[in-house]
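TASK: fixed-backbone design
INPUT:
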């Protein structure tokens, strides 16, 4: 009887303890791989943490380049290396200009990525500058990705980036992930906590992770909070947007950041 009572109490406790989704790392990889050293920090992270999911945004030229083209040989070689890691899901960057870019151009970019050779292809699309207010045009974009066969997926993976909270938008039915925050750490502090609408589909990107009192402990604390909230993915860099392109290089905190997410 005592054992039964104890088990019932244990199950009751487990029932109220939240189970959080595993948080992955989203990487805006906007740097040209002049040599393999350029992407080496990511390659090291993929090898060091094989159980951690990475969502890597491939961006040769604010998109795939010329219509129906193949990427530069340097991209071909280095993407092939990334594809050897089962924990790397690659998505191609497509600019939508907050709904102002011509639909035909957006669809052409999707087609171009889909035409890359499977050995260095991507697995879906990252739609940057997604219009925050729902626009039905994005339905056709999502359909175009999901109806296409990609190298390692029967249906393409879709990430949209309005970069801000969009409430309980219909976008969540169109995308696997939505970036609902992309800003500086100072802005993150002001807006935190980020609204949890569908956390298992939400991503948080924080750049310019600098300032008075910011330390390795601060980074670990923020990552722990994001993981506890159940966000699908996150990216944090201490590169300062007022000084550099924050996605064209890896910050000096990248290795620790990844280790914190994996912890």
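OUTPUT:
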């Amino acid at each position: 009887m005592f054992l039964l009572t104890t088990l019932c109490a244990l199950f009751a406790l487990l029932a109220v303890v939240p189970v959080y989704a595993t948080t992955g790392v989203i990487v805006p990889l906007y740097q040209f791989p002049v040599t393999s050293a350029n992407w080496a920090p990511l390659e090291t992270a993929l090898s060091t943490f094989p159980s951690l999911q990475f969502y890597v945004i491939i961006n040769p030229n604010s998109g795939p380049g010329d219509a129906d083209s193949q990427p530069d040989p340097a991209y071909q070689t280095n993407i092939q290396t990334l594809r050897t890691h089962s924990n790397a899901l690659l998505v191609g960057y497509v600019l939508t200009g907050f709904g102002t870019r011509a639909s035909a151009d957006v669809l052409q970019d999707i087609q171009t990525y889909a035409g890359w050779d499977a050995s260095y292809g991507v697995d879906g699309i990252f739609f940057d500058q997604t219009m925050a207010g729902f626009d039905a045009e994005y339905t056709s974009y999502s359909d175009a990705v999901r109806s296409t066969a990609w190298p390692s997926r029967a249906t393409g993976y879709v990430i949209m980036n309005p970069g801000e909270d969009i409430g309980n938008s219909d976008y969540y039915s169109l995308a696997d992930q939505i970036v609902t925050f992309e800003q500086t750490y100072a802005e993150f502090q002001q807006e935190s906590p980020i609204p949890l609408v569908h956390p298992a589909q939400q991503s948080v990107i924080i750049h310019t992770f600098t300032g008075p009192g910011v330390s390795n402990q601060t980074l670990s604390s923020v990552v722990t909070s994001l993981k506890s909230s159940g966000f699908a993915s996150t990216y944090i860099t201490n590169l300062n947007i007022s000084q550099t392109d924050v996605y064209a290089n890896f910050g000096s905190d990248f290795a620790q950041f990844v280790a914190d997410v994996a912890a």
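COMMENT: Residues 39-262 form a domain with the TIM Barrel fold (CATH 3.20.20.80).
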